[in-house]
Write a structure and sequence with these properties.
The complex is a heterotrimer of chains A (375), B (280) and C (551). With 375 residues, chain A is mainly α. Chain A has 15 helices and four strands. Chain A has a two-stranded antiparallel ribbon with strand order 1-4. Chain A has a two-stranded antiparallel ribbon with strand order 2-3. In chain B, α4 (132-139) packs across α6 (156-168). Chain B is built from eleven helices and ten strands. Classes of the chains: A mainly alpha (375), B alpha/beta (280), C alpha+beta (551). Adenosine-5'-triphosphate (ATP) sits between chains B (49, 54, 72, 74-80, 122) and C (547-548, 550).
């Protein structure tokens, strides 16, 4: 009962959130039905490809929520958040790799193909345990979390802020990218991890598995949204915003600012890790390109476009930008970078609060006009 | 050698205040040891910025429950002094103690704040994107650790306290307004309100009445004098009339050093002070 | 004579004109008289007697004709023939059964004949050694040090007393250090085979002075054992001397390899400096995080490419044109960016980061659309290719050397601009206190635009330098942007000297790590180091002084 009331109060004045969650629920129920229950040749049939594409967007949306927490709410512009996403993805990738077993090209039951190719004798120690699903999932959260903790502990304690922080987060993901490109690291180097066969015994080629992954992703997104919403509406959420707006003030009324930043940063990294872990079985590959600084910055744009400091804004931005990306890169490939570039500029110069901010502004104006008319 | 130095240090301090030899200082609010009736000690404190001595061998003692005014020309080091007390700036030399036991130079800002030293900045700093109510709620005396704040809920008593302060700072009607929409004077009030919510032992108030109307100034004077006694209040202000209306003891800072100390009349007739303020 | 004339290229035209004139007027006379003497001497080679031939050879040498060397070489290798019918001498290239006749003067193939029409000019051993030393002498007097050096290298393979004497003479007049060194090695190589112990000892010591690989080999040979386990050299003293010499050589080699790594490091540092100083200005002075900085460099590199397209016949001068052109192009684009976008974003550094990132994407795509996504090849002028060989162990490539010098010049110029010019004064005043500067009548918008233009222009110049080192493609900028940021942040924002120190030290550290860890790992180590360093000193090596935004 008490829980319910917390839940209600969380969403009480979150119209956008309610709309988003209802839409998500509809999509999660309707799309799988249209895929599995409607005949292939029917006009209403939704292809598995579309489902997977949607699942990918939902992963991005979860990632965008993670970034929005640190950037929109805490004012930490992380240009390395894709690193946490990728680390989560690699953890999942390692599990999927182990699941291949002896069905690889070289048929080695123990070693993944690329290790056989590199003439490795045995599995490196850090691959141990990844044949267990629970362990891999734990790592998908723990590794990004621990990295974020170490990095944040150092950075926030020594009060690295603003642009400096952004640049060193970028350096972090860049360094990780270079590291994962190395064959010696034991993560498949350039090619990354791919050729997955099955997850928890379900074949990844099967429509039902795909649909299942989509539903789980949607569920995780909903949970991620609710938990994040709980955080931002809690007193901690208010402290975090306070830290964003007047860090010194927060400090001088007795908050240990670095702990709050660290907490949010780590939580966000874990969320990003989960998003990455959900992403990999759906797209079927994870490679060092996911660490590229460009990805992290693109992620920032999703959030900026949707409207930072609003969780559903981040979701909206992620889905909108990625939908246009899918459309444009297929239809007019040369235009995509122009569009993305222009988006960056337009949003920063004209729409500091993103689309959601614009909508709110327009609504406020309408309300004002109506007020003016009524008397 | 080291031991000898330490002993010497202890001896030297002992001559003045015997508490200073103690090592660890537990930070427990309300456990400030004021047995000597002095709540803040600044002793031979110096700070320089790139070779410029902003605070120069400053000695200052604030009595428990006292209302002290600090005046001084621009750049005298008044704000810097508050920075030192609140841990924002670390002194190059000298010692800063809160009560008999707490060495403020070894504590971080939030520890100092939770130990019971509150501060109002010269330029009003509030949380612009929060409502007035939330600003007060955030400042409120409470356990401010991370996990606790995550699950913190407002108790009815706390709610009442916030409304009480809202009344005091005359912002009751604006409780739900975002703080960035407030006027300059209202922001000043809000910051004072946040200070009240913290319920600190010592209030450091930097230029509180800038931007306030005459009535508001009077109200501030009333509020500050009312706080003194239970709290110790240190006010930095340029407005001499205001200072005269509230202060029993006035300290004049000049070039980072105490120039004079005494009642307003004494200070105003001090030839050195007159020279600093009038002569060039 | 046909002139491949390009109207409009005045310089080019003038040059050609002068060339034509000189060819037409002076050269024919000289050439004619030289040819005559040379041809006469050649004719005498057809004589029967060897002493006559010897005299002819001397005369050929004395003619100082440019074809002396090929002719004598042909004679030495048995490829000089004369036609039986008219006793005209030809250089011959044998191809299967047929002989190709090559005119000695023009070097052109003139006819193809059967074997029987020709007679070979035969030589004996005396002539052979005479020829050898003449060819060596000719080569040794060549003005090009590389030719001289390779002549010595050739002689080294087969040393004779004559050769030693020749080299001794050359040693006295030789100016190039590296040729001298090679000569000394060559002489020592001969001396070490002598029976005289003192000579041998001297030779060993001389070899110890040299880092020539041949010298090292020989010394190692002296102390080695043969198949039976006996020392090749019986004399203990000599072996010890050789051992000593080896260790001095090895120390020297170490020093030189250190110097070489240092050179690589400094040159990498210079590239970093070039790419970072523009950023240091826009970041440090204006608080703008210019993510499009890399793309401005890319524009500079493409400007070089276009300049070379426009003046294909004077690649040598193309860089002189490209540097100001790139400065203007990138600077202009920079001013556009500042006026068009950034002026709305001052005081919001994170927003400038995002907006300029957008600009960088657009610039990349523009280049892709205009030039194609593939890499373009930018030519390296003659004077920038090759290397300055200080000795056999240390060679500094000219392109790197010039880039070091170039970046130092740019850096010095920039410091001068900031310190001594009115613009510099305005820039500094705006960066320190915008409001105050405005109040004093400084037009801060113009200063902002010009500052950004300056920073961008320098990025363009850096692009010209990069075009000489890496591929010019749409991704050129991205490869450098993170490194440049690292340099600026590490050095301390707003401090050009900090940028300098940071660039140089990062470059050098990187290059010293590389042999030990590999290039990628070295880079990772440096990145991690900087990340950790920033924790210790959040404002970099040399933080900007002043009140750090108090309340
Ligand atoms: N972080 C800093 N870096 C450099 N100089 C500083 C710094 N903080 C203070 N100063 C200098 O120290 C001196 C004292 O400054 P402070 O702000 O304490 O003066 P004040 O007495 O509060 O003056 P006002 O009455 O104008 O507020 C000034 O000259 C100021 O410029
Ligand atoms: Mg002050």
């Amino acid at each position: 009962m008490a829980h319910k009331s917390i839940f209600m109060s969380m969403l009480a004045d979150d119209r956008g959130g309610k709309i988003f969650l209802s839409l998500l629920a509809i999509v999660t129920i309707v799309l799988p039905l249209l895929n599995l229950a409607v005949a292939q040749d029917s006009a209403f049939h939704i292809s598995t490809f579309t489902i997977t594409l949607m699942g990918k967007y939902l992963c991005y949306a979860l990632l965008a929520i993670a970034l929005d927490l640190v950037w929109g709410y805490c004012g930490i512009l992380s240009l390395g958040h894709a690193a946490f996403f990728a680390l989560g993805g690699y953890a999942m990738g390692m599990y999927l790799m182990r699941q291949i077993g002896d069905r690889g090209v070289y048929g080695n039951p123990e070693l993944p193909d690329f290790m056989v190719f590199l003439n490795w004798e045995s599995l490196p120690w850090y691959w141990y345990g990844f044949d267990q699903f629970w362990f891999a999932m734990l790592m998908a959260m723990l590794i990004p979390g621990v990295l974020a903790y170490l990095f944040g502990w150092l950075a926030f304690r020594s009060r690295v802020t603003g642009v400096y922080l952004s640049i060193i987060t970028q350096a972090l993901t860049y360094a990780l990218m270079l590291a994962f490109f190395r064959n010696e690291m034991g993560f498949g180097g350039n090619n990354g991890l791919t050729d997955f066969k099955e997850i928890l015994g379900f074949s990844l080629q099967q429509d039902a598995t795909r649909v299942g992954l989509f539903v789980i992703t949607a569920l995780m997104l909903a949970i991620g949204y609710l938990v994040s919403r709980f955080i931002v509406t809690s007193k901690l959420g208010r402290v975090v915003v306070a830290v964003r707006d007047a860090e010194d003030r927060a400090r001088f009324i007795g908050y240990k600012v670095e702990s709050f930043k660290l907490w949010v940063f780590v939580f966000s990294a874990v969320l990003a890790g989960i998003a990455g872990a959900l992403y990999v079985p759906q797209v079927g590959i994870i490679n060092p390109g996911e660490f590229s600084p460009l990805n992290s910055i693109e992620l920032v744009v999703w959030v900026a476009v949707g409207g930072r400091g609003l969780l559903y804004g981040a979701v909206l931005g992620a889905i909108l930008v990625n939908f246009s990306k899918t459309y444009l890169t297929a239809a007019l490939p040369e235009v995509w970078l122009f569009a993305l570039g222009a988006l960056f500029i337009i949003v920063t110069v004209f729409l500091p609060k993103g689309i959601v901010g614009l909508l709110q502004q327009m609504k406020a104006r309408k309300v004002k006009e109506q007020k003016n008319e009524s008397p | 050698m080291k031991a000898l130095d330490q002993v010497r240090e202890v001896m030297r301090r002992d001559r003045v205040f015997n508490f200073m030899a103690q090592g660890q200082h537990p930070v427990i609010k309300g456990k400030v040891d004021v047995s000597k009736d002095i709540i803040l000690y600044l002793e031979s404190v110096s700070v320089s910025f790139d070779g410029f001595k902003a605070i120069n061998d400053l000695d200052l003692y604030i009595n428990d429950g006292e209302l002290r005014c600090i005046i001084g020309p621009n750049g005298a080091g008044k704000t810097t002094m508050m920075d030192i007390i609140t841990g924002k700036t670390r002194p190059d030399e000298g010692s800063v103690y809160f009560g008999q036991t707490m060495d403020l130079t070894k504590m971080s800002e939030y520890e100092i704040a939770s130990a019971g030293i509150g501060r109002k900045f010269q330029k009003p700093t509030i949380f612009p994107e929060h409502t007035v109510f939330e600003n007060l709620e955030l400042a409120m005396e409470a356990d401010k650790r991370v996990w606790i704040t995550l699950f913190a809920r407002l108790t009815p008593a706390q709610n009442d306290r916030i409304h009480e302060v809202l009344q005091t700072i005359m912002l009751e009607q604006h409780a739900e307004l975002k703080a960035r929409h407030l006027s300059h004077g209202q922001k000043q009030w809000l910051e004072i309100g946040m200070l009240l919510m913290q319920n600190p032992r010592v209030l450091l108030v930097d230029e509180p009445i800038a931007g306030m109307t005459h009535q508001e100034t009077e109200k501030t004077a009333e509020l500050l004098t009312g706080l003194a006694g239970e709290h110790s209040v240190v006010v930095v202000e340029h407005d001499m009339e205001f200072v005269r209306s509230i202060a029993k003891t006035v300290t004049v800072l000049h070039e980072g050093h105490v120039l004079a100390e005494g009642s307003m009349d004494e200070v105003q007739n001090n030839p050195k002070v007159i020279e600093v303020y009038l002569g060039e | 004579m046909k002139l491949p004339c390009i109207t409009g290229h005045l310089k080019c035209l003038l040059l050609l004109l002068m060339l034509c004139l000189s060819v037409l007027t002076i050269n024919p006379v000289l050439a004619a008289s030289g040819d005559e003497q040379f041809m006469n001497a050649l004719q005498q080679l057809t004589a029967k007697k060897f002493n006559q031939k010897s005299q002819a050879i001397s005369e050929i040498e004395n003619s100082r004709h440019s074809q002396v060397k090929p002719v004598l070489n042909a004679l030495l290798t048995g490829n000089l023939y004369y036609r039986k019918s008219d006793k005209v001498v030809f250089i011959v290239q044998k191809q299967d059964e047929t002989f190709q006749l090559i005119d000695v003067l023009s070097d052109q193939q003139v006819a193809e004949v059967g074997k029987r029409t020709l007679k070979k000019i035969s030589i004996n051993n005396t002539l052979r050694s005479q020829l050898r030393s003449i060819i060596a002498r000719v080569d040794l007097s060549d003005p090009n040090a590389d030719v001289r050096r390779s002549a010595v290298q050739d002689m080294m393979k087969d040393m004779s007393l004559d050769a030693v004497n020749l080299l001794q003479e050359q040693l006295v007049i030789e100016r190039s250090e590296i040729v001298k060194e090679t000569i000394q090695v060559a002489i020592a190589l001969y001396d070490i085979k002598s029976d005289d112990k003192a000579t041998k000892l001297n030779a060993i010591n001389a070899l110890g002075d040299s880092v020539h690989p041949e010298a090292n080999n020989l010394l190692k040979y002296v102390v080695s054992k043969d198949a039976d386990g006996n020392y090749v050299e019986n004399d203990l003293e000599l072996r010890l001397a050789a051992q000593n010499a080896i260790s001095t050589v090895e120390t020297k080699l170490k020093i030189y390899s250190f110097a070489e790594t240092l050179f690589f490091g400094v040159s990498l540092g210079s590239v970093l400096l070039l790419s970072a100083i523009g950023l240091a200005i826009t970041f440090g002075v204006m608080g703008v995080i210019n993510m499009a900085h890399g793309e401005l460099m890319m524009l500079g590199a493409y400007t070089t490419y276009v300049v070379q397209l426009l003046m294909p016949n004077s690649i040598e001068y193309s860089l002189m044109v490209a540097v100001p052109a790139a400065f203007l192009v990138a600077g202009f684009v920079g001013i556009l960016i500042e006026r068009g976008v950034l002026q709305f974003l001052y005081g919001r550094p994170l927003e400038t980061l995002l907006a300029t990132f957008g600009i960088s994407l657009i610039l990349q795509q523009v280049v892709r659309s205009v030039f194609s996504p593939l890499n373009r090849s930018v030519e390296t002028p003659e004077w920038m290719s090759g290397a300055w060989e200080i000795n056999s162990a240390l060679a500094l490539t000219y392109n790197r050397l010039y880039i070091i010098i170039f970046s130092l010049i740019i850096f010095a110029l920039l410091i001068l601009i900031l310190k001594k010019t009115a613009l510099g004064l305005y820039i500094r005043s705006v960066s320190q206190n915008r409001e105050m500067a405005k109040a004093m009548g400084v037009r801060s918008e113009w200063v902002d635009a010009l500052t950004f233009g300056l920073g961008s222009g320098i990025a363009g110049i850096a692009g010209v330098a990069l075009s000489q080192l890496t591929n010019v493609g749409p991704n050129l900028g991205q490869a450098y942007i993170i490194d440049s940021f690292m340099v600026v942040v590490f050095g301390g924002v707003g401090n050009l000297w900090g940028t300098f120190v940071a660039a140089m030290s990062l470059g050098v550290v990187n290059k010293f790590l590389e042999p030990w860890s590999g290039a990628v790992l070295a880079k990772i180590i440096v990145l991690v180091f900087i990340i950790l360093f920033i924790q210790k000193r959040p404002k970099g090596l040399f933080p900007q002084k002043g009140r750090a935004g108090g309340n």
